[in-house]
Amino acid sequence: MQALGIDIGGSGIKGALVDLDSGELVSERIRIETPSSFHIEEVTRTIATLVSEFDYSGNVGVGFPAAVAGGVVLTPPTAHHVAGWVDQSVNERFSRATGCEVTVLNDADAAGLAEIHFGAGRGVSGVVITVTLGTGVGAGLFMDGKLVPNLEIGKIFLASHDDVVEQYMAGRIKKEHGLKWYEYRERLHEFCEHVEQVFSPQLIIIGGGISKKHHKFISEDQLKRARIVPAELRNQAGIVGAAAGAVWGGSARTDINK
């Protein structure tokens, strides 16, 4: 089975056809520049243009940078804060514009679905948390492979730091604050210790663009109970997970324990 996955990023809206048996891209990845205004009408037109590039008429999944429930946007888009998105049914809007059945989910949830179905979380039962380090800190929460959506983990406070997590250890913070890798590693480990205390996961998967250098900042000192591992799908996770969400929603695959 195939589906079209679309990942809406700050600078580019990217899409590809995905084989949902293997989790592999089976088409060229097409990228269109994200409208600088991020206005709802312009983004909708861009998605319709992207879908038309594939001459495609099946299920479409879209990873969107905000909390989304039932296809309705709950919070302003991350890093854009543009009016006009909250309370909009983007499932309906994008479906009308493309002529396809479109399922929209939070972008970090989409990346997490990819890791659970095809990557580092495949076959892991119990609680798994996927973390996406980028402009902010996104996360996916899974119980026995089933998604619990919209875990806004980047908005929580650390007791030792008087600000939200994404202002302390998002991927961009290393560059903005001129942190050495060991300093960034200490911040990430502190964050993971807090996640372990609050959620008691079996596994924490670290993804995002910075994860390609995971050997520099994932500590060899593991937590008391949870394992910390790098993501496997990296930059393809958003597209692959969006495609999976279009077909399976937040449900586990039937082979989750294989």
Describe this structure in words.
The protein is an alpha/beta fold and 258 residues long. The protein has 7 helices and 15 strands. The chain is globular. Mean pLDDT is 90; it is low at 252-258.
Helix and strand topology:
Blueprint: E1 2-8, E2 12-19, E3 24-25, E4 30-33, H1 40-53, E5 59-64, E6 68-69, E7 72-73, H2 90-98, E8 101-106, H3 107-118, E9 127-133, E10 137-143, E11 146-148, E12 157-158, E13 161-164, H4 166-169, H5 171-176, H6 181-199, E14 203-207, E15 227-230, H7 237-248
Helix pairs in contact: 1-2, 3-7
Distinctive features:
2 domains; 27% strand; alpha/beta; 258 residues; six-stranded mixed beta sheet; 7 helices; single chain; 29% helix
In short:
Helix content is 29%, strand content 27%. The chain has 258 residues and is α/β, with parallel strands linked by helices. The protein folds into 2 domains: 2-106 and 242-248, ATPase, nucleotide binding domain (Nucleotidyltransferase, domain 5, 2-Layer Sandwich), CATH 3.30.420.40; 111-236, Nucleotidyltransferase, domain 5.
